[in-house]
Amino acid sequence: MQKIKNPSIINFEKKGDDRGSLIPIEGLNNIPFEIKRIYYIFDTISDIKRGTHAHINLEQILISVSGSCYVDTYDGKERKTFILDKPFIGLYIKDLVWHEMYNFTSDNVLLVLASNIYNEKDYIRNYEEFLSLAKANN
Ligand code: T46
User: What is the whole-number distance in angstroms between the Cα of residue 119 and the centre of ligand 1?
Assistant: First the structure.
């Protein structure tokens, strides 16, 4: 598939019929990586922030399969706000993008598809460190 901007929204094709809707997601088919890990975030408190970090080498897609949340991103040059409020859109986030999730509705289930298994060493949690790495990358 063609190169996707980091970060950006992917629209998934809905397989709808008179019984309801279904969205298939296949690694290297309608997303740009093989899925090595899936996790989901739920029971979130509306006025807290999650995330507040960047990754060194990880591709992820965030999908609100229920409810909604907001995601602020910063790649060292451009700040963006995404509203994830539909199960057929996914937010693609790759390396060196600071991201923060907030405004969770009580019914939000945020599904995340990731290109690698969990590795705490892949996290950049210090904002100053992120800024210098992002600056060197841009
Ligand atoms: C990200 C955003 C979108 C694991 O043990 N395995 C896992 O695969 C993950 C993702 C987390 N954990 C543990 C680590 C912490 O003890 O679960 C706890 C909560 O994780 P964290 O505070 O990192 O959660 P968020 O919501 O701040 O961030 C998560 C992902 O960690 C992160 O990679 O990009 O969602």
Answer: 10
- Give the model confidence (pLDDT) of 3-14 as tens digits: 899 999 999 999
CA torsion sign for 104, 109, 112, 117 is: positive
**Separation between Cα atoms, residue 91 and residue 62, nearest integer Å:** 5
Q: Are strands 69-74 and 8-11 parallel, antiparallel or unpaired?
A: unpaired
Atom of ligand 1 nearest to the CA of 60: 34
108 alpha carbon – ligand 1 mean position (Å):
16
| Ligand 1 proximal residues by C-beta, below 6 Å | 37, 39, 41, 50-51, 60, 62, 112, 118
Would you name the residues annotated as active-site residues?
A: 53
